[in-house]
From TrEMBL, chain A:
Primary localisation category: membrane
Membrane topology listed for this record: Multi-pass membrane protein
Domain (ABC transmembrane type-1) ranges: 90-306
Recorded family membership: Belongs to the binding-protein-dependent transport system permease family.
Name assigned to this protein: Sugar ABC transporter permease
Subcellular location: Cell membrane
Region (Disordered), start-end ranges: 1-20
CC per GO annotation: plasma membrane
Entry keywords, A to Z: Cell membrane, Membrane, Transmembrane, Transmembrane helix, Transport
Keyword NADP: no
GO biological process: transmembrane transport
From TrEMBL, chain B:
Transmembrane spans: 29-51, 94-115, 127-146, 158-181, 202-227, 258-280
PANTHER family per UniProt: ABC TRANSPORTER PERMEASE PROTEIN, MALTOSE TRANSPORT SYSTEM PERMEASE-RELATED
Membrane association type: Multi-pass membrane protein
Family that this chain belongs to: Belongs to the binding-protein-dependent transport system permease family.
Source taxon at top rank: Bacteria
Keywords: Cell membrane, Membrane, Transmembrane, Transmembrane helix, Transport
Chief location: membrane
Protein name as it appears in the record: Mannitol ABC transporter permease
Domain ABC transmembrane type-1: 90-280
Any GO BP annotation: transmembrane transport
Amino acid sequence: MTSVAEQTSRGRTDAASRAGGAPRRAAGWARRAPLLPALIFMIVVTQLPFVATLVISFMDWNAYYPDERGFAGVDNFRRVFTDINMREAVWTTILLTAGVVLISLLLGLGIALLLDRKFRGRGAVRTMMIAPFLVVPVAAALLWKHALYNPEYGLFNGALTGVWNLFGADRPPQPDWISTMPLWAVIFALVWQWTPFMMLILLAGLQGRPLDVVEAARIDGANTWQIFRTMTLPHLRQYLELGALLGSIYIVQNFDAVFTITSGGLGTANLPYTIYTIFYNAHDYGRASAAAVVVVIGTIIIATFALRTVSSLFKQEPGR
Amino acid sequence: MSVTETGPVTATRGERGERIHHRRDRAGVWFSLLAWVVGILFVLPVLWMVLTSLHSEADAATNPPSVFAPVTLEGYREFFTAGASPWPPLLNSLTASIVSTALVLLLSIPAAYALSIRAVKRWTDVLFFFLSTKMLPVVAGLLPIYLFAQNTGLLDNIWLLILFYTSMNLPIAVWMMRSFLSEVPVEMLEAAAVDGAGLGRIMRAVIAPVVMPGIAATALICFIFSWNELLFARVLTATVAETAPVFLTSFVTSQGLFLAQLCAAAFVVSLPVLVAGFAAQDKLVQGLSLGSVK
């Protein structure tokens, strides 16, 4: 990260900062001044609470037993690492995030390719595709849980009944979607919301593709698959990475869908939900903080790799 | 000589080209049809939500679904009049979203200026610091903020939520605004400075025209994310500062038939985002990609 910073910021230093002495320092502060409010605000609101979390993670602190507050050493961490629920939550988070990001990325790619052609009603289809992303996440989760998945009157089982009736068959299958496949139920609801996001980013990428080169390749006899594999896909690579990165940032943190659709039951409790319950329901502040610290450290390790991807995305951008 | 040689060749090329065209047209029709089918499948749950919200409770919960049941506004009437009024939460959400968006713009635009047009040293480090705060799990900061609010009496206070939403959206806004500000042509800035234009004039004449669409995109995204937020609103608010998403979760009581009312509620709460998002579709893409897709 630093090496990228040094590469790109070289040559951006102004003549004023080379002058030296007091005027140089003043010029430096004049430059920094507009940045400071935002920077200080971010440090106070996001970093200070984390320091507090770190402190509390070494404390024995449960709101139900206020008299027993004190230093706990690494007890909380020991409990976090031996807690089977935490380990399952890590696994659930990985499955949920990877599942949603991969499926919505693939679907989004397919749909972006379909929409990257001129046809009647293209604008209308694009608008229809965006709609899921504009439904408030809690509302979407409630909609999927009650209006679609419900085994008695949900749309899915209703449609099954309708189709069975149409062919004169009786006793249509009426699965209880959420209890038979809880994690997939959450994943599908999220894929429905995030596919439009991926589609929009990939469509923008497709439309920035140099068309004359594609046309030249077609005239030279390249077929559609060859063009896709050797030209479109490499061009889309950075957009795919961007979609995957941003999607992961948001879906790793997902709380709404898990909270609403399954209430974290049936093996769908991800890390945000699990920590929320330790804190909000069990009121075990020490353990919740330790869990949060562990998650933050894990995130930092993963994010270091992810940030490298972003910085490579912005490397081509000319500095000035 | 050359004419007789090239003549037939061009003819066959033309034929082959046409044949390929025909085949591509036929495939094209199928692809267009597929695009329509996929689009309808994706919008179907939203349409179903709207349709169900317009049915009576009895018609909403049938199996198979009664698509052509008579339309009624019963669900909406129930939502607005029966039980707790949804207006205070809706107004709270509106306040929190608008005020935090304004604060975000106020903080992010100068910051983005110091990261692009007159960049500080190590500006990429600063930029990545902002992004890295987005990657930290929000639950990690939840507990101390809750304890802080409890001790200062700020629990169930909309201003605490506004402060948090500002910090939640500030990194996104800084990234977006930076990417838009880097599009301002430096030559024009320098020319304006040489002509003796002051900072205010440069802002208005050179920077604003390029950046206004970017500000709109940033505001749209910040508004949507603040409006949608559930976890912090749920923990930090109770009856006074409750927001619309929190109201929605507490509204669900699994007793009896409630589907039409639920769909009406979900639609009402989603309406501001749906309207804003449809009105500014292209801004949505710019915003979601942090300004890297123009």
